[in-house]
UniProtKB/TrEMBL annotation:
It comes from the Eukaryota. Belongs to the class II fructose-bisphosphate aldolase family. Gene3D superfamilies: Aldolase class I (3.20.20.70). It catalyses: beta-D-fructose 1,6-bisphosphate = D-glyceraldehyde 3-phosphate + dihydroxyacetone phosphate. Pathway: Carbohydrate degradation; glycolysis; D-glyceraldehyde 3-phosphate and glycerone phosphate from D-glucose: step 4/4. PANTHER family: FRUCTOSE-BISPHOSPHATE ALDOLASE, FRUCTOSE-BISPHOSPHATE ALDOLASE CLASS 2. Its cofactor is Zn(2+). This is Fructose-bisphosphate aldolase. Coiled coil: none annotated. It holds the Pfam family F_bP_aldolase. GO terms for biological process: gluconeogenesis; glycolytic process. Binds 2 Zn(2+) ions per subunit. One is catalytic and the other provides a structural contribution. It is an enzyme of class 4 (lyase).
Amino acid sequence: MGVLDIVPAGVLTGENVRKLFNYAREQKVPVNVTSSSTANAVLEAARDIKAPIILQVSQGGSAFFAGKGIANDKQQASILGAVAAAHHIRTVAKAYGVPVVLHSDHCAEKLLPWFDGMLAADEAYFKEHQEPLFSSHMLDLSEEPKEKNIATCVEYFKRMAPLGLWLEMEIGITGGEEDGVDNTGVDNAALYTQPEDVYDVYKALNPISPNFSIAAAFGNVHGVYKPGNVKLQPQLLGAHQAYTCEKLGGQPAQPLYLVFHGGSGSTKEEIQTAVENGVVKMNVDTDTQFTYLTGIRDYILKKKDYLLSQVGNPEGADKPNKKFYDPRVWVREGEKTMAARVKEACKDLGNVGQCLSLRRYIIR
Ligand SMILES: [Zn+2]
């Protein structure tokens, strides 16, 4: 049985998101997308290796999707860009034949107007299509006091659950710097979440809906850095599962859906331990950003003499260069190298061939 026997191809919402996460509790790799080009590259990679995939937009990535020329003082560009990205992905996803989870990344308290705008778009879409526009959103109030963090999540989750939206929340802090949020200076102790705190989240959210996941910090850092003082401790996730399991009377063994932020640069062993401890989603952004560049960079360096003027190259002073500077040629090189990196991340996570379906072969 393949994953396509459980959920359809295209953007998933509601119970289908949970079915996908339950499906062998395999990790699914979300990749940050900032344009239709990066979104298509990720979908192409997922199709080639028959893997379900999560596409997510950050607040800054959303604004970029709308266009940097639009003001964003009230999050208007981030709202428009997230909605535009969602519609683009919804329009093309089915053609790639893989299940897609459409997610928005970290939303800190000061960015809540962005969240409100996306949620309004979900509610409007729901009225027409009986499902939300997105599959899932992340609220990240991890910098706020715990009580306020959880209370804010509860308030939003009550609005989200009836639409069939998944909620990802963060407790404990992901270190490093990403998208303008700088946690490079926080106390190391805050980078490791306590099992009691994770259980408090479970207790508050589970009565509303089971469709939520927790980004508990275990020494995660956004970005790729030289090894420093912060050590990744994915075995701590096992302690969270055990603590909540005990509080629930010993069943089920892994009650929590956990999320791994800052996956770029992690070792295969660290990833494996995280998977064993119930991680259903690992974020990779820094590495795919770099690989999107490498294809374009190498093309420009290799074809430099064909790119200095519109006419005239080493083959002759009157030779045209249009076929070398056409953006579809050099942007495509970035898509190819980015897609290769996405495939590699999926392979590290065992997320390959999941969409192969026996039933579909028989029908054929
Ligand atoms: Zn993150």
